[in-house]
From TrEMBL:
InterPro entries for this protein: CofD, CofD-like_dom_sf
An annotated Gene Ontology molecular function: LPPG:FO 2-phospho-L-lactate transferase activity
Species in which this protein is naturally found: Prymnesium polylepis
SUPFAM superfamilies: CofD-like (SSF142338)
UniProt-annotated stretches for the region Disordered: 1-33
Protein origin, superkingdom: Eukaryota
Protein name: Uncharacterized protein
Lineage: Eukaryota, Haptista, Haptophyta, Prymnesiophyceae, Prymnesiales
Length: 257
């Protein structure tokens, strides 16, 4: 859609937040609002403090989209009904034919999960038949080694973040997998709830990540491959994937090696 879309979040305590900035970043503290009326150099509605972190009053349970009626005020958001968006057919086709699926790094609840609740995405990621056909056709005429889609399906790789943020404070690796899986199942048209292994079967973990990793619990969920990746610290001291190590690990797992 080229229209404005609004994101909402339901918290574990049953309360709701409306708007991406409200979910991911705290509203600007009153001390920042010091300009006289008429002299603000930009809209305060668009002012976002991405460095501050006001803790959420309760963990996020799910995210959803709100109907677009042209009224973009906060008051209107409170009464706006939920809507479901459908993915473009071309996107779904690419997802079905991809030799590997990668859930990249980023804001879990406001960047990654909103893409996963779109109708059609879950089915396309879970369906390995088209990918197996494409890989088979490629291997038939190839002279080098080719990737194969085994019984466990094509690689579906989750790249765990190295540090917590407002959206994920207190979560561990198992919680992140559940968030991904629940979001995908939420968007299914048939209402089915597939197991985690249908969507994620490989986990990349930057060494020293803030997210605790319970390997036994993850393997019980069907994630058989957990890869420890060399890490480094960014300018703010946060754990990130080592530039070359991250690329090498992703390439290795995506190729099925």
């Amino acid at each position: 859609s080229r229209d404005r879309v609004a994101l909402g979040a339901e918290l574990a305590d049953g309360s709701r937040l409306h708007g991406q900035n409200t979910i991911s970043h705290p509203p600007p503290p009153p001390s920042l609002k010091t300009w006289p009326t008429g002299e603000v150099p930009f809209s305060q509605h668009n002012l976002v403090d991405k460095e501050g972190e006001v803790p959420l009053r309760s963990p996020i349970r799910r995210v959803f989209y709100l109907a677009n009626d042209g009224d973009y005020t906060a008051a209107a958001d409170q009464d706006r009904p939920e809507v479901r968006h459908c993915a473009h057919p071309a996107v779904l086709q690419r997802l079905r034919e991809a030799e590997a699926i990668v859930f990249g790094m980023g804001s879990l609840w406001t960047s990654i999960c909103p893409c996963l609740i779109v109708s059609g995405v879950a089915e396309a990621i879970a369906d390995d038949s088209a990918a197996a056909s494409v890989v088979g056709e490629g291997a038939a005429g190839a002279t080098g080694a080719a990737m194969t889609v085994g019984a466990a399906g094509r690689p579906k790789i989750l790249m765990l973040n190295g540090s917590h943020d407002r959206e994920t404070r207190g979560m561990d690796a198992v919680d992140v997998v559940h968030a991904i899986v629940d979001s995908l199942n939420q968007g299914r048209k048939d209402g089915r709830r597939l197991p985690p292994s249908a969507y994620v079967n490989v986990l990349l973990v930057p060494r020293g990540s803030d997210f605790a990793v319970d390997e036994a619990a993850l393997r019980q969920m069907g994630i058989e491959r957990i890869v420890d990746v060399a890490s480094e610290r960014d300018a703010k001291g946060r754990v990130v994937y080592g530039a070359h190590a991250g690329v090498d690990a992703l390439r290795m797992c995506a190729s099925g090696r």
